[in-house]
Design a protein that fits this description.
The protein contains 10 helices and 8 strands. The chain is an alpha/beta fold. It has one domain: Rossmann fold (3-Layer(aba) Sandwich). The chain has an 8-stranded mixed sheet, with helices on both faces. Helix 8 links the parallel strand 7 and strand 8. Helix 2 crosses helix 7. The longest helix is centred in the first third of the chain and has 15 residues. The two termini are 28 Å apart.
């Protein structure tokens, strides 16, 4: 079973434009790919992305206020649009003229924000089960329920689906109860990963999507002129980022490929590392 712990000895640091000390870790060797976590939260939950580190050197930053990165003095700097400056500072720190970029979940919003502002700095772009707030694609409660109903044969389904209905209808609901929907198999590995996949800063989470964080019309326009190859990977069972919304996202780019990983949820490198690597590693080669 994989471990998601990262020792302090693996941490490296750089300084953001506002002076905040930010951390990142490195997995593997070879040409780098910068991997932006969702949440925003400590990047440890990404592990080595199912063995992607055997193909590329993964640079995994902890967003400000999470993991081993410092808490900023200005709470408004948690906004997604402001975090673009942190990604650019990391690129400069690494001495890269251009960088391949991977964003997972909410980190995909930051990845496309960076690509929209610095298209000449991006080599290839990978968006894994991407969030869509940055491009204004709405995922309805019914779309999430439809995805969830595909798991109706699972023993945990009745309680999880009841909680999901309560959450989507705004009548309460137990967020912990819906956790099984986010993995293709709710087994011991998924449970361990769930324990390592919880945001560690409520302030960072709230600030990420604060007012002004996203400008969908401007971002969509910029992505329409983005000529770099893009891979979008969806999980067949993912109710957070359903395949239909990811397909709509792919349609915003001139040169995008869409892969729907069978049997996967929101963390496809956990559900089936071999399939995940089969899609992502050749694209980044």
């Amino acid at each position: 079973m994989p471990s998601y712990a990262a020792s302090e000895s693996t941490a490296s640091f750089f300084t953001a434009p506002d002076g905040t000390r930010l951390a990142y870790r490195t997995e593997g060797a070879g040409d780098p790919v910068v991997c932006l976590p969702g949440g925003p939260m400590d990047s440890r939950y990404l592990g080595d992305l199912g063995g992607l580190s055997a193909h590329r050197r993964l640079i995994l930053p902890d967003p400000r206020g999470t993991g081993r990165s410092a808490v900023p003095e200005d709470a408004s700097s948690y906004r997604c649009d402001r975090l673009v400056d942190d990604v650019e500072a990391l690129r400069e720190h690494l001495g890269l003229a251009r960088m391949d970029l991977l964003g997972h979940s909410g980190g995909a919003n930051l990845a496309v924000g960076y690509a929209a502002r610095h298209p000449e700095r991006v080599g290839r772009l990978v968006l894994v089960t991407p969030g869509t707030a940055a491009v204004g694609i709405e995922i309805t409660g019914e779309a999430r329920r439809e995805a969830a109903r595909r798991r109706g044969a699972e023993p945990w389904f009745p309680a999880a689906y009841a909680a999901l209905e309560a959450i989507t209808e705004g009548t309460g609901g137990d967020w912990e109860a819906i956790a099984p929907f986010f993995w293709g198999r709710w087994d011991a590995a998924a449970r361990e990963h769930h324990a390592a996949s919880r945001p560690d800063s409520a302030e960072a989470v709230a600030g990420f999507s604060a007012e002004g964080a996203f400008d969908p019309p401007a971002t969509v326009a910029a992505l329409g002129a983005f000529r770099t190859p893009v891979l979008l990977l969806a999980g067949e069972f993912d109710l957070n980022s359903p395949p239909a919304s990811t397909a709509e996202f792919a349609g915003l780019f001139p040169d995008a490929s869409l892969v729907v990983q069978p049997g996967a949820g929101h963390y496809p490198w956990i559900d089936d590392p071999e399939r995940f690597l089969g899609a992502v590693a050749p694209f980044l080669r």
